[in-house]
Write a sequence for this structure.
């Protein structure tokens, strides 16, 4: 069958057989089955019809196959018998150029030391293996172009928008690393700004940003009453997290050595998302929780553990599902922030410090060098009082309001 080859035509071939490119003399694609085959340059030399393999499809693209066929045709017209010149080029290239799958793995391995969350590391490896490597894994790092990136992203851009958007960023970072190491040059084909944004719709226009579902702050006292009826260290860890507005990783990896005698929990910069040391003034109930957790596993170095091992990433989430499967552990930070804004006169700056949020504005950050510890002591005491009793400071919540909450 003779027709002008296009990428779409080749991808949609369903029957085995030999197909001839009408646009490139001598170029054939022998199809073994859907999605596979090999390129052949067919020519006459010395009165004989001969075939020269150009490589397997899809490892060798239509563009590359045409390039090879045109070069061979030029040799033939000069009276020379065509030779597979690219084999020598490929052998030389393999000595200097890594394949994408190998380079991506190397990059992630080198970078993962700065990520505390093992789930985050797994997501990097899994998304690259699942979506990128089947298409570009066996391509040299300097051969990857925009069409390759579109082939990876387009099938999942509408169905799994968040995953696709994160994958794009990861590929962009890997290719940028290769450029820095002078393994490739030119435009990064995974770049969004001014490049892919002109082709693909914005992720936020397809799928709105979803925030972590949070419990209304007025329901916190009732929720904690239910939680305290649950046995086990996971329940203690979850209550501790709520009282101190922590992220899960801060609590799960917390160490007894980080607690000072005056009730201050100092989390080192290496374990914080913003990479800055975070001091947390612990309230009375938080100290009680730590004492109970210590009695359950006295020889452990962790704040919350079983047989000396820290709780799994899912421990608190599973406990939460037993009480209210509609909300998330991370949502309690939003609950705390809403309470500060809606019910108190504590400043937003103090609340942001309590949440250990990084200041995006560099000029503003330069002036915010203190951690407002004394202010946060008062804030966190009010929050603990509210969580346990429904009232704080000089404010008392009326019984009618509590029933209506």
């Amino acid at each position: 069958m003779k027709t002008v080859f296009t990428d779409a035509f080749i991808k949609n071939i369903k029957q085995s057989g030999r197909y001839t490119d009408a646009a490139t003399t001598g170029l054939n694609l022998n199809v073994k089955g859907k999605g596979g085959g090999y390129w052949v340059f067919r020519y006459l030399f010395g009165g004989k019809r001969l075939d020269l393999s150009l490589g397997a499809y899809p490892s060798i693209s239509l563009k590359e196959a045409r390039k090879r066929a045109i070069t061979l045709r030029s040799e033939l017209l000069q009276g020379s018998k065509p030779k597979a010149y690219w084999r020598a080029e490929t052998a030389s290239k393999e000595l200097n150029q890594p394949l994408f799958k190998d380079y991506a793995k190397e990059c992630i391995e080198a970078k993962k030391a700065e990520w505390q969350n093992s789930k985050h590391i797994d997501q990097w490896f899994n998304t690259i293996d699942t979506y990128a490597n089947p298409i570009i894994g066996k391509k040299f790092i300097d051969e990857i172009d925009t069409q390759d990136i579109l082939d990876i992203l387009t099938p999942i851009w509408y169905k799994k928008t968040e995953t696709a958007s994160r994958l794009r960023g990861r590929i962009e970072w890997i290719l940028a690393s290769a450029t820095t190491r002078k393994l490739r040059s030119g435009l990064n084909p995974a770049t969004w700004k001014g490049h892919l944004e002109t082709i693909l719709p914005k992720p936020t226009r397809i799928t709105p940003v979803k925030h972590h579902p949070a419990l209304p702050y007025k329901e916190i006292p009732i929720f904690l009453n239910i939680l305290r009826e649950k046995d086990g260290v996971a329940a203690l860890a979850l209550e501790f997290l709520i009282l101190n507005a922590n992220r899960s990783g801060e609590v799960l990896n917390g160490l007894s050595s980080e607690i000072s005698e005056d009730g201050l929990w100092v989390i080192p910069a290496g374990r914080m998302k913003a990479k800055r040391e975070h001091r947390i003034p612990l309230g009375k109930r938080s100290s009680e929780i730590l004492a109970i957790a210590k009695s359950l596993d006295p020889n452990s170095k962790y704040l919350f553990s079983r047989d000396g091992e820290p709780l799994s990433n899912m421990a608190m989430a599973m406990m939460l599902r037993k009480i209210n499967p509609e909300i998330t552990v991370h949502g309690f930070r939003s609950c705390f922030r809403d309470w500060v804004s809606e019910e108190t006169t504590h400043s937003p700056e103090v609340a942001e410090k309590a949440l250990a949020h990084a200041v995006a504005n560099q000029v503003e950050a330069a002036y915010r060098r203190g951690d407002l510890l004394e202010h946060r002591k008062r804030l966190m005491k009010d929050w603990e009082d509210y969580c346990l009793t429904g009232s704080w400071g000089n404010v008392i919540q009326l019984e009618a309001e509590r029933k209506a909450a």
In short: Strands lie at 2-3, 17-21, 27-33, 36-45, 48-57, 264-267, 278-281, 305-306, 309-310.
